[in-house]
Every structure is written in C-alpha cells, then in structure tokens.
Amino acid sequence: MSTGTARDLTDPGLYSQGEPHEVWRHLREHDPVHWQPNSGRGGGYWVVTRYADVERVLHDYSAFTSERGTLLNLLGRGDPAAGKQLAATDPPHHDRARIPLKQALAVKPLASFSDRIQAGIRDLLAPGADGQPFDFAVAMSQLPLVALGPILGLPTEDYPRLIRLAMMSTAEEDPEFQLPGGVEPTLKRGHREIFAYFSDLVRARLRNPGDDLISVLAETEVDGERISTGSVISNCYSMLLGSAGTLPHVPIAAIVELAGSPTYGDWAAHPELLDSGIEEALRWATPASNFMRYALHPVELSGVPVAEGDAVVAYLASANRDAKVFPDPDVFDIRRRPNRHLAFGVGHHYCVGSHLARLALRLLFTELFATFSSIEVVGEIERMHSTFLAGFKRVPVAGVPRRATVEG
Amino acid sequence: MAVEAAQQTSVQERLAQLWTARLEISPIGLDDDFFELGGDSLTAAELQGDIDKEFGVEVSATTLFLSPTITELTQVIEEAVAAAPSGTTGAHPGGRQ
C-alpha cells in the first residue's frame, strides 16, 4: 500500500529505515498541518507536527474526540472500544472510569514492588553482565512484563507469550509479528487471545483474591458500586498494550544514541541526573509516536482550517523535537531542564502508567550503570516496521563490566 | 424460540438465551459468530460469567474468544459438565433456573 514517496507517513517502511525526523522537521517548518491522503484505503488525515498544535489537539477534548478511534490503524473504521476503554472515551465518563487504575498505579502502591522489579531487571541484563555480546532490544522487550508481572501477579512463564500477543495487537504491520492472513487477522487474534487470557485470570483471582493489582481492581468501587468484571479485564488489557510496545524503546533508543559516547559515562557518574536523563530518554524515544482524534466542529490549527469530522493525527514524536520548545532538539541532553515532553501525552489521557514506567526506567538505568562502565553497539541494528510505534527489534551490544574495570 | 435449528439440545437453547440477553438479538443460529453478531470483547467477558453461573462449570475463555459459536461452546460445556464430579456442578438439567 506504499506509494514509496518520502513524505508518505502511512508507509511503515518509512519508519523501518529510521524515524522520519527530517520529514517532520520539514513539515513543522513549512507545512505544520499537512493533509496526508491515506494511500490505498481512501480518506486521509491531518498530520499535526508542531508542539503547540499537538498539545492543543490532545488537550482540547471538546474540539477533538477520542471516541472514534485514537490509533491510525483504526482510520475510517471507528473504534470498537469507543466509550468502553479508557483511551477511546472522552471526559467526563473517562475521568470516572480511570479512577481505579489511577489509584492502583499511583506512586505509593507501586513502591512495594521495587525489589521484585529490580530482580527481574538484573535477570534481563544477566546475558551480557560479564561482557559478552547480547541483544539489548531483545532483553528490553521483556521489561514491561518484568515491571507489570509482579504487580498483576502473572506467572513468569507467560511473559513471552503475552509480549508476542501485545506486539500482534500494536505492531501488526511488522512481518515478525504478522500472521499469514495479514493485518486484520493479526489484530483480531492478538486482541482476542489477550482478552481470553485475562478473562480466565480475573475469574481465578475473583475466586482466590491475592495482594496483586487484579484482585485490588476487582474489589474497587466507583460511586459505591464494584467495577464490572469486563472493566477489570479491559484495564488489564490496557496495561499490557500500553506498556508492551512502548516502554522497551525508551532505554533502547537511549542506548542506541549513547553507546560509545561520553554521555553514557557522564550520566552514570552523576546519580543526581538520573531523573532528568530519564525524561530526556522519554523525549528522545517517544515510542507512541502519534495519536489520532476527530474534529467535532470546524477548527483552525496554525491557520489551517480543519473541517468537522476530519481525522487529525498528532505527532508527539515530532512535537518533542520542536526547536521552539526544546533548544537543540536533536541533542540528547541529560541535563535538559525544563523538559515538558509529550511522550506520555498531555491532558486527560496522560499515560495512566507513567509512574510505573518511570519506576521501571529508574531501576533499569540504575542497574545498567551499576553493571557496565561503558557500552558499545557491536552489530546491525534493526528497527520496528510500524507507523505507530517508533522502536527497535535488534540492537546487539556489549558492555564493559564495571567489576572488571575496578579490578584492572 | 431462540435457536434456529431442527435439532436442539437444552445446552444449545440455554446458551442461545444467554447470547440473546447480552446481544439483544434473536434468533441466533448455531454457527453464528458471537463477534459478527455485534458482540465485543467486553460483552464476551460478561458472557463468560453468565456461562459459569448458568451451567455451574468453568469454560476456558479461549473457546469463547476464538471459536465463538453456539455449536463449539455447547461441545465444551457438555464436556466440562461430564468431567465434573456429579452433584458439584450445580447444572440445571432440562432448562432454565
């Protein structure tokens, strides 16, 4: 379905060769609200690339609705989850429905899981801990479940299958995850299997409650009523999908940029920069590169009239490189402050898992710096083939173990 | 009549009634796909709870989500009922509660 032009943002091939930062920069400067025909499928959408416009599209739910689909792959089809899942629901219903997950994923309840998450992270780095080459992207692909697994009480042996199903549901264009039948059967199968998995799990937890988040969610009350079983399952689904395709790419993108550069050592030597460096890694990676909305009435964005009913796609990954907001946007600056990046979105739909993501990233980078004094890319890098997720599938690296450095 | 077929079993009929209650449509064919009739994953999850209650056995969600027809579900429910120790299933032979 690709027309092969460099500007065709609907072509997943554009992304497997590298993030189209050049394309986005050009659009920000010359054509900030650009009409993109949707090659092969009819229709089209507005490509919004400037920070101020992206922020407005995400913020202003009275003008831009989430209820007709928020992912580009739903363009023109409507969202089957409209009004039912958090990401596809507008306020005020959205804000009420979000309460249980927001409480469960707040900073305090998560703290008690730190030790277990850290142990899981150590295992992920173990294959390279003695200096052997290992694939950092493959290792990090398990990070979301290392973080979520202890919280949801998931059996470790289920992690790889859940990751695979989540990738079928979010990177369905990538040949590595696509089923022989194509995009549609891949999405359907991934989605249904995840639901089936969590349906059985939630049922088991309702019978035998534990101290995990699923048990907590099942007992949560909103307005004096327990939330429905369907809602508990759907929240589990959202947590898996929200993290599986996104979280790994923050450390991966950071390491691809920092490997072999003095910035790695600089960051490792300054623990007080842990958080500002992580925010910069989030800005740099912006793994969920875009979200879609539909205009509810005629609006103007950067002087361009957008008609009622038009699809509008906000490119967070472009906004996060907007020089008007981020001086030297293409420099990975671990000291960058302020850093009001949009990697978690903005407004009512701000990522509900952001605390868990930041906790996992803090533990990961701490462990990484404690393990390796430096790190190098030692083989060919392979990117994701997706118009939605910006990331990497293969990043062979080798680290210099800190132990060895100290001893000799 | 909820089921359109010459030969009906009571499991099929009770299942069709559960589907009708969730989907608000009738009649339901034995080989109709739950999702093609307008069901979604959330409705399917609620239906799983309905099946647990109605038949007193726990059917894996895999069947419901991946082979969502009355015919397929009837088979796994009948197998589950047969496998359950007698007197523990709470099934209601012959009809509704």
TrEMBL record, chain A:
InterPro entries: Cyt_P450, Cyt_P450_B, Cyt_P450_CS, Cyt_P450_sf. One of its GO terms (molecular function) is heme binding. SUPFAM superfamilies: Cytochrome P450 (SSF48264). Gene3D superfamilies: Cytochrome P450 (1.10.630.10). The keyword Iron applies. Keywords: Heme, Iron, Metal-binding, Monooxygenase, Oxidoreductase. Belongs to the cytochrome P450 family. This is Cytochrome. The lineage of its organism: Bacteria, Bacillati, Actinomycetota, Actinomycetes, Kitasatosporales.
